[in-house]
Amino acid sequence: MATLERRELGNTGLKLSCLGFGASPLGNVFGDTVLGNCLHELNVPREEIVVSTKCGRYIDGFDFSAERVTRSIDESLARLKLDYVDILHCHDIEFGFLDQIVNETIPALQKIRETGKARFIGITVLMTQP
């Protein structure tokens, strides 16, 4: 069986394949569901895949509160039919308030990592300036 080339993500030790299943255009709700169903049907061994999902941006807008971020990972895990994700990133933080991101969102992400629901955490920014 052919294997995909893998590269390390920064200095994390996490190796990612150069090719992946990109469900970002589907949004975290639909993408999580599609991926979760596929993984369940194919019975893929968990240690053979790297799964990421996002929080912060939702169908009805942005919410970077600790309560919503925490609820989001639980919802994603249920849709993915997994106990943990490898990467959880808070998406489009430029649409939030810096004070909330620093004092509420990032600590919530850290707690999620500490509970084992996400191995790695991060944030994404679409654009800071034109």
Description:
By secondary structure, the chain is α/β, with parallel strands linked by helices. The protein contains 3 helices and 7 strands, in the order ββαβββαβαβ. A 3-stranded parallel sheet has the order 3-6-7, covered by helices on one side. A hairpin with a 2-residue loop joins β4 (57-58) and β5. α1 (27-42) packs parallel to α2 and α2 crosses α3. The protein is globular. The termini are far apart.
Q: How many alpha or pi helices?
A: 3
Domain unit count: 1
Gap between N and C termini, in Å?
45 Å
Average pLDDT, all residues: 86
Which blocks of ≥5 consecutive residues have pLDDT under 50? Answer: none
Please identify the oligomeric state: single chain
In the CATH scheme, what's the topology name?
TIM Barrel
Shape: globular
Instruction: Please list the strands of the largest sheet in the order they lie side by side.
Output: 3-6-7
**Cα radius of gyration in angstroms:** 15 Å
- State the fourth-level CATH superfamily: NADP-dependent oxidoreductase domain
| Number of strand elements | 7
Main beta sheet: strand number and arrangement?
3 strands, parallel
- What percent strand? 15-25%
Helicity range:
25-40%
The CATH C-level name is: Alpha Beta
Give the SSE string: EEHEEEHEHE
CATH architecture: Alpha-Beta Barrel
Q: Which structural class do the helices and strands define?
A: alpha/beta
Protein name: NADP-dependent oxidoreductase domain-containing protein
Domain NADP-dependent oxidoreductase: 34-124
GO molecular function: L-galactose dehydrogenase activity
